[in-house]
Design goal:
Elements lengths: L3 H11 L6 H5 L6 H24 L1
């Protein structure tokens, strides 16, 4: 016996469209989070280097 929900899943996946993220959003993403994380990492490394140098 087949489940009627299986037919619905098959029907919806047959009509499913895949679009790239820029088209789905209507714009581009500037990747600001990558920049913030990179700058933060550099600042933390510099801060630890200063602490290590001062406390010797």
């Amino acid at each position: 016996m087949t489940d009627p929900r299986d037919a619905e899943v098959a029907r919806s996946s047959a009509t499913e469209q895949h679009v790239i993220s820029d088209r789905a959003r209507g714009g581009s993403t500037p990747h600001v989070a990558r920049i913030v994380l990179g700058v933060s990492l550099v600042l933390i490394v510099v801060a630890f280097a200063i602490i290590l140098f001062v406390n010797g």
